[in-house]
Amino acid sequence: MKQYLSIPVQYKTSTQLQEDDLKIPVEILVMHDKTNLNKSNFEFEVIDADVTKESIKNIPILGYIKKIDGSDAKDFSGHEMEIVFKDGEIEVIYLERPIGVVPETNQYEYVEKNGKKYVKVIGYLWKDYINQGYEILQENPNKSVSMEIVVDAYEVREDGIIDIKAYRYTGITILGDNILPGMEGASMRVLGKFDNNQKFSQEFYKRVEQLNKELNSQSSSLEGGEAQTMGKKKEGDNMDMGFSVTYNQRREALRNALDPVIVRDGEDKIIEETYYWVSDFDDEFVYVEKNYWTANDHECTYGRFKYSFDEATITATVDMSSWEKMIKVWLTEAENQKIQEDRSKFESTFEENEQLKTKLAEFESAINEKDVLISQLTEYKNKNEFEIVKFDIESLVEEFEPILAENEEFKALKNNISQSFEKGELFIELDALEKELYAIEGKMKHKPNTNKQKKQNFSRVSIDTNTSNTNDGLYGSAEKYIKKEK
C-alpha cells in the first residue's frame, strides 16, 4: 500500500544563476540519507535508485500565502487543505498551487555535508505566478520547504523508525518561517539577485554602505549623561552636532518633567524633599538617581520610569506610577562581558522556548484537527453501515408483505421497525427478523382442524379396596374381568 509523506527542507540565496523576466532559479538540498528528525530513514542506495532519481523531474514547486496570526504581514503557510463532504463522500481539496517546477534538466547531484549525503537539484519559480511571494522572498530568501513523496515500500523498525525502502518524488511545498524543518541541514536557496523591480534598489544599498563607512570612521561615548565626540569631525559635517542637540533636548525635557517633590508642614517648613537626577535614557525608559531627604535622614536609590516624548513640542511626559527600583553595580570588563553573554544565552533560550511553545500549540491543533476528521469519518462509517442494514431490513419486510400484510403480529413488528428507524436506531437484527417473519408465516399456514372427532376416553375401572371377602381370588373383585385360560 502506498504511503504519502511530507519531508521539510529549506532553501536560500546564491549567485550562480541569474533570474530573468520569467523565472527565478532556486537551488534545493532536497534530502539526506540516514535517519532524519521526523523519524524516517533513507539509505543511500534507495535514494540513488533510478526510479527515484527520474521521479524528481518536472515535479511542481507549490505554495500557499496567508496572513501571519495577529498581524497584517503575510508569509507562506504549510500544507493547507479543506475537507468537504459531498454526496455522502469525503473530498480533500488542497489549497496550495503550483508556483514553479523542478525541470527535467535540473543538475541532479549529491553533496557531502555534516557526514550526510544530500540530493541537490536546480528548480525555477515562475515570477508571474508567485504574486506576493516575490516580496516575501525579497524580505527573506531563506525558506523551509516540504518534500512530498509517495512511499512504495517501507518497514517499521523496533525502535519506531520508518525505514523507507522505495519512494518517488511528487512535489515540493514552500513553508512559512514558523515551520520546523524535518531534515537537518536540508535547504533551498534563491540563486542570483533580484532585478531592478526589487523592493530595495542597488542605489539604496550603496547609500547604506556609504553611511556605514562614515559612521564607522567616528566614535563617541557618553559620560555622565553628556555626549562627547571622540573622533575628528569632517569639515562641513554637522552630523554629530545634530545628534548632540537632539540628545540634549530630550534630556532637558526629561529633567523638566521630573519635578522635585517638596512636603511642608503647617508652618510652611520643609519636612520632606525628593529630587531626581537624570543618569541616562533610551526610547522607553529614563534612568534616574532618586534622593529622598528628611530632617534626620537621607536615602539614595536608583531606578527608572517609563516616558513618552513629543517630537513636535520637544516635551516629555513621565509616568510616575511606573517607578521600578534598580541596582547600580560596579563591574570589571570581564564581569560585564560574562553578564552580557549569560543574558544573551538566556534570551536565546527564552526565544527557543517560546518557539517550542508555538510548535507545541500547532502540534496540538493538528492533533485536534485529525481527531475531528477521525470523528467525522467514524460518524460517516456508522451512518453508512446503518443505511445498509436499514435497506436490507426494509427489503426483507417487503418480501413478506404480500403474505403477511393482514397479520396483526406482522403489522406490530413492522410498526416497531419503522419507529426505530425514525429515531436512528435498530429495533431488530437482520437474522433475528428473518426468523421472526418465517415463524409468523408458519403459524398462518398451520391452522388447527376443528372437524376432527376427539378420541374417546378410556373407561375407568373402580376397584373396591375395602372388601372383606378373602376368597375373591388373587385380583379381588376385578378377577371377573380377566379371561381365564382353559
Radius of gyration: 46 Å
Number of strands: 22
Q: What's the tally of helices?
A: 8
User: Residue-averaged pLDDT, rounded?
Assistant: 76
**Beta-strand fraction estimate:** 25-35%
Classify the helix fraction into a percent range: 25-40%
Spans of at least 5 consecutive residues with low confidence: 10-15, 193-212, 218-241
Question: What best-fitting shape do the alpha-carbon axes yield?
Answer: extended
Largest sheet entry? 11 strands, mixed
- N- and C-termini, Cα separation: 99 Å
How many domains? 3
Could you spell the SSE succession in H and E letters? EEEEHHEEEEEEEEHEEEHEEHEEEEEHHH
Helix vs. strand class: alpha+beta
Indicate the multimeric state.
Answer: single chain
Detailed description of the structure:
This protein is an alpha+beta fold. It has three domains: about 190 residues, no CATH class; about 70 residues, no CATH class; about 100 residues, no CATH class. About 30% of the residues lie in helices and about 35% in strands. A hairpin with a 5-residue loop joins strand 13 and strand 14. Helix 6 packs parallel to helix 8. The longest helix is centred in the C-terminal third of the chain and has 72 residues. It is extended.
